[in-house]
Amino acid sequence: MNVLIAGGSGFLGQALTKSFLADGHEVFILTRGARVMNGAHAVQWDSETTNGWGHLVNEVDVVMHLAGKSLSSWPWTASMKRAFHDSRILPGLALAQSIQNATRRPGIFIQQSGINYYGLRGDLADESTPPADDFLARLAVKWEAVTKSVEELCVRRLVIRSAVVLGGGGGLLSLMALPVRLFIGGPFGSGRQAMPWIHIHDWVGGVRHLIETENAQGAYNLIAPTPTSNAEFNRTLAEVIHRPYWFPTPAFLLRTLLGEMSVLILEGRFSKPKRLTESGYRFQFPGLREALADLLG
Questions:
Q1: Of 203, 202, 209, nearest to 280 (Cα)?
Q2: What's this model's pTM, rounded to 2 decimal places?
Q3: Which of 12, 65, 202, 239 is most exposed, with the fewest beta carbons within 10 Å of its own?
Q4: At what angle do helices 173-181 and 288-296 cross, to 10 degrees?
Q5: What is the DSSP string of the chain?
């Protein structure tokens, strides 16, 4: 199988690339100059057009859109929000155009998205829950919509709405664990808000499962099946790395320090991987304690 990944030099892209290469697949990484994993093929692109790489779509079986500036980038100024938007939408448009132009189209297109599609508050959400109308939800809706046109070309399109992916050597886990390691760990604000997460092995496993499940198409939540609050997450993290669990960090302080970005840790909606589990996927790390023990123990 030949796989083309936009955003393949990032944390998630590298994990997928390692999995594909281990199984003998060919991986082509669209990059603006970043180094790629040994064994993969680096393909230069400008992330906005099909110039110089569009012909490769005729030779691959799977195209993946994982590109997008990390929401952990701070502060959330107007220009930063524009970067969040453009780094997702413009590559998506280019990828959709490349498939439109192809004479031999890939069988599968995978569109990355986020669990924030459902908003920051409300009842337990699954894939049938309509989108919310806050900034993060609107961004996810536009991110998904930009490649929907490939469905009209008889390409099986999968939309993966990912939670925070926990992994060693990258991602957000090391940053999330820092306050706990410094003996100042505790809940953020009330601690009752959802803390959506998934182990990197289950994220990769879920994506591979959906690729291999021929009748899988549409949106799937890639999130651990055990709903976890912020307080539960930080308490378990403290226990796993043998640190105290102290008093909460006041919400007003986080809002003052982080501005609008504080919604990432002060708000969150509980969601479940309904369609993923119904498709037959079995989680390696369904519970938080075993996931953190695997990564940090």
A1: 209
A2: 0.97
A3: 239
A4: 90
A5: -EEEEETTTSHHHHHHHHHHHHTT-EEEEEESS----TTSEEEE--SSS-TTTGGGGGG-SEEEE-----TT-S---HHHHHHHHHHHHHHHHHHHHHHHH-SS--SEEEEEEEGGGG-SSSSPB-TTSPP--SHHHHHHHHHHHTTGGGGGGT-EEEEEEE-EEE-TTSSSHHHHHHHHHTT----BTTS-SB--EEEHHHHHHHHHHHHH-TT--EEEEES-SS--BHHHHHHHHHHHTT----PPBPHHHHHHHHGGGGHHHH----B--HHHHHTT---S--SHHHHHHHHH-
pLDDT digits (tens, 9 = 90+) for 34-92: 889 999 999 999 999 999 999 999 999 999 999 999 999 989 999 999 999 999 999 99
Domain edges within the chain:
2-166+196-223+272-283
At the second CATH level, the architecture of 2-166+196-223+272-283 is: 3-Layer(aba) Sandwich (3.40)
CB 97 within 8 A of CB 50: yes
